[in-house]
Amino acid sequence: MTISNQKAFDSILSMAQNMLRLASERAQSAVTPEMIERELNKLSMVMEEDFAQVDRDALVDELIRRSSRSVGENATLSSGEDHVAWLDAERKRGWTYWRRYSEYMETRIPWTALDALDVATDEVLSQLEDPTREGAWDRRGLVVGHVQSGKTGNYTGLICKAADAGYKIIIVLAGLHNNLRAQTQIRLDEGFLGFATIADADELPAVGVGLIDNDTSVRPNAATNRSDKGDFNTAMAAKMNISPEQRPWLFVVKKNKTVLERLLHWIRNRVANHVDPETGRKLVTNLPLLVIDDESDHGSVDTGEDVVDDFGKPDLEHQPKTINRLIREVLHHFTRKAYVGYTATPFANIFIHERGETQEQGPDLFPAAFITSLAAPSNYVGPGRVFGSASSTPDDLPLVRALSDDDFQEWMPSKTTTRPEIRPHRNGHRPRWKGVARVPNTLAEAIRSFVYACAVRKLRGQGNMHASMLVHVTRFTSVQGEVVSQVSEYLRDLKGRYTRGIDLAELEASMRIEYETTFLPGMQEIRDALIEGETLEDFSWEEVLAVLPDVLSDIRVREINGSAKDALDYAENEGTGLK
User: Fold this and answer.
1) pLDDT band at 382, cuts 50/70/90?
2) Residue 317 above 70 pLDDT?
3) Helix, strand, or coil here: 558?
4) Computed over its alpha carbons, how large is the radius of gyration of the chain?
5) Which of 66, 128, 161, 342 could form a disulfide with 338 if both were Cys (CB 3.0 to 4.6 A apart)?
6) Cα angle vertex 249, ends 243, 253, to 5°?
7) What's the CA gap between 142 and 127, in Å, rounded?
8) Are 544 and 568 in contact (CB under 8 A)?
9) What is the pLDDT of residues 514-556, one digit of tens each?
10) Phi and psi at residue 554, in whole multiples of 5°?
11) 274-288 in b/e burial notation, b at 16+ Cβ within 10 A?
12) Rounded (5°) CA angle 74-288-355
């Protein structure tokens, strides 16, 4: 689909969704295919040019898919201590950042999911304090979401609403590595800032919500940018001055000692406007702060001991671990602040001692104000549905196939082996299969399955969507480098044979059998077990074969770890899709 066709498709989709929502409410019934056809007929008369550019059947399919989605109820535990209820319809009137984010998301998620996002972000924001409330206040909470179920979209919506309400400094703690921080920055460029934070650019182009509302006077300020080296730095700190009248400032920073120390130094020396007469601590009293801690169970929790004494009183001399200490010190320099942790695995967070406090860092990050558990959408397929419970067997799970020792232990020996003569591999291991530096047959099959999946998506008109496969067989980066070489070599061989037609007959015949007897039946099993209300088209081997050379040419192999230089640059491949 071309960019103009996609724009027309999205425009119709957005209008049709809103019309169907109203039609459904008037009829007090669920959306039906007849209702979809009726509303599209109305739209086609006023959007004739757009309709001429799009596949109407694809529009109907997408609207049916979206209309069949539902989202359950969220659950919240909360404390009203030192909290004044404040969020109502009047307080939300005239909000800009949420309005444009909501409009931006209309073409990306079903309206039921958008309504659920609105409700969930209101639920969380209402648990925080009104940023216009005078005096000192401190709210700390936790949002628990499912793995890969839209937590980033949720806190982006929360940030938009918090900025509308009057929070002036918004700090997002975005993982431990540059690539994760940069990806989060890109998402917030699109959902909140409205412009691409390109380093050293004369002009920052509008993106995302900025294409919906091009009023630059409402643009938030950005203290970080989307490059791998775009974290908060000394040069930025030296030229930044913030006053209460300004538009909100966004910081997207790593959980990194050096970065957080720079941020803390800047707060103390460039932002603080008051000194506590008793402690001498520099304070910010005129700028309400919101800290969003992404994956808050990772790096943020103090793992030290003795936060309280034998009588349950805080040990004010306790020395917390570095990242925890620095996050708490940032919070402790503001008299009006809110902290919201996001995680799918909240166990470490809820076991933070609620009385943990020190003189220098203040209270620990225990979610004393609230814990909100987000409901998953009806089409969510998470670890529970993929891997089952502890009692599940591979036969019960359509997405899982257990391997025997013979399938991989020679190549990557692990602790799971039942053969006592095999010792788990160590750092520096050089994987070999049948004595040769190549991937084992089972991994080769898995790679071919990914190739088939990319081909099917291309045939369904989804060729410009991102698609990724993760191969994770070792924790040692030196061994990961060997795996990258072997996977790359296998793909090079496949690509070479299909693009040049070299020694292809035997390979093509075996892949045809595999596609028809293993891949297609396997996909049908997965659909039957995991997908409801979907009609998905299958394709013959001849159709798949026609696109295989292009599919193989598009696939890239990237090494992603703490020391590799590769990055998953999804944003830079938005038009074509990163494979």
Assistant:
1) confident
2) no
3) coil
4) 26
5) 128
6) 130
7) 11
8) no
9) 999 999 999 998 888 877 666 788 999 999 999 999 999 999 9
10) -80, -20
11) eeeeeeebebbbbbb
12) 65
Q: Could you identify the residue written with the tokens 């070479």? A: 496
Residue 304 has pLDDT above 80, yes or no: no
The answer to whether 215 and 153 have CB atoms below 8 angstroms apart is: no
Tokens standing for residue 389: 């419970």
Say if residues 158 and 121 touch (Cβ distance below 8 Å): yes
Q: Which tokens belong to 206?
A: 């509008």
The pLDDT of residue 559 is above 90: yes
> What does the alpha-carbon distance between residue 472 and residue 16 come to, in Å, rounded to a whole number?
42
Where would I find the H helices in 430-540? 441-459, 477-500, 505-514, 520-530
CA terminus-to-terminus distance, the chain = 17
The pLDDT value given to residue 134? 95
Token readout for 152 is 């980033």
CB-based contacts of 108-113 (< 8 A; 24+ apart in sequence): 109/66, 109/150, 109/153, 110/17, 110/65, 110/66, 110/67, 110/69, 110/377, 111/17, 111/18, 111/20, 111/21, 111/66, 112/66, 112/69, 112/70, 112/71, 112/377, 113/69, 113/71, 113/150, 113/377
Distance CA 566, CA 559 (A): 6
Contacts of 444 (CB under 8 A, 6+ apart): 490
Give the tens place of pLDDT for each residue, 420-454: 778 899 999 999 999 999 999 999 999 999 999 99
Residue type, 105: M
- Reference 183, options 259, 89, 135, 254; nearest CA is 254
